[in-house]
Amino acid sequence: MTTTVSFTRAVKAFGAVRAVDGVDLEIRRGESVALLGRNGAGKSTAISLLLGLNEPDDGEVRLFGGTPHTAVRAGRVGAMLQDGRPIPRVTVRELITFVARTYPSPLPVAEALELAGLTEVAGRRADRLSGGQAQRVRFAVALAGNPELIVLDEPTAALDVEARRAFWDSMRAYAARGNTVLFSTHYLEEADENADRIVVIDRGRVVADDSGERIKRAVGGNLVSFDLAGTPTEGLRQLPGVVSVEVRGDRALLRSADSDATVLALADRGMVRGLTVTAASLEDAFLSLTAQSSSEDAAPAPAADTTVENTTALAEEKV
Ligand SMILES: Nc1ncnc2c1ncn2[C@@H]1O[C@H](COP(=O)(O)OP(=O)(O)OP(=O)(O)O)[C@@H](O)[C@H]1O
């Protein structure tokens, strides 16, 4: 597959703050990638390097194998940034038509309006729309040039649940045409639902880069619990996949990175009474990952058998 975006040991510092601190990242054509991180993690700075709005102090950022400037000038990249410019006093259709004319091979205007879900309000004045509709106008502006890559910095901030859902429907329709999407978000569920891959960024560094499912699993993704019925708990920690063991009353709770293997091993021992397997949320995984990266800098690394719950509690204070 063709590489669309590549960061190679990219660094961007603002004074003492290393906003992007040695990022390696590759995004292939057709992928939808979420950049997930807390406030100040470095997401917007990474996006500004990608769009050529900032130059890296060290390392390299390439788009379609060339410089970001070349790709942006050729209309290969569409962007929707946080500080959306005010929308002028023209109709939605006029605005998109005007923007489309500035690109070498734009989308037909009707198609851009349709993709962004604006067909019904195309004749309305663009500065008299609801917040959700205005956000769609910004999306249509980003799409107008028919870009191969679209970059969205927290695109659904301030949208209500319905507007958010409608926005992601539009985004997925655009991605389904074989285009590449990179978006940043604080919303873990959004990342899980709308991206093929999640890149977790913390303090300017990539701390995880995988599918939502695998990220959950890697931090001890599933919780396996069962009734002990008086059986001793020795050896549970050594079962395949088990990351931590907790006993509450007569119930054992095992955090497992491979719940299938754990359940099979428990079945071998006849420990299956009242057995349940529940998925850890991506939120647990995210908090755990960002806590690990903070503790590497600030404090001794947690012991190998530190429970996800403990690590999570540690992180919650910082998020
Ligand atoms: N122009 C700037 N001058 C000084 N510091 C900056 C500048 N831009 C960003 N920073 C700092 O760099 C770090 C990363 O900021 P960035 O905006 O990239 O984070 P973010 O992940 O996008 O955060 P948010 O989710 O709050 O938008 C922060 O500590 C921020 O204060």
How does this structure look, described?
It comes from Actinacidiphila glaucinigra. InterPro entries: AAA+_ATPase, ABC_transporter-like_ATP-bd, ABC_transporter-like_CS, ABC_transporter_ATP-binding, P-loop_NTPase. Keywords: Antibiotic resistance, ATP-binding, Nucleotide-binding, Transport. Its main location: membrane. Residues 5-228 form the ABC transporter domain. The chain is of the alpha/beta class and 319 residues long. The protein has 2 domains: 3-210, P-loop containing nucleotide triphosphate hydrolases (Rossmann fold); 222-279, Alpha-Beta Plaits. 34% of the residues lie in helices and 27% in strands. It has 11 helices and 13 strands. The chain has helices at 43-50, 68-73, 92-101, 109-115, 131-143, 161-175, 188-194, 212-218, 259-268, 282-298, 308-316, and strands at 3-14, 17-28, 32-36, 58-63, 77-80, 149-153, 180-185, 197-202, 205-210, 222-227, 242-248, 251-256, 276-279. The strands form 3 sheets. It has a 6-stranded mixed sheet, with helices on both faces. Strands 11-12-10-13 form a 4-stranded antiparallel sheet, with helices on one face. Strand 6, helix 6 (161-175) and strand 7 form a beta-alpha-beta unit. Helix 3 packs across helix 4, helix 8 crosses helix 10 (282-298) and helix 10 (282-298) packs across helix 11. It is elongated and about 75 Å long. The two termini are 36 Å apart. The model is unreliable at 298-319 (pLDDT under 50). Adenosine-5'-triphosphate binds next to strand 2 and helix 1.
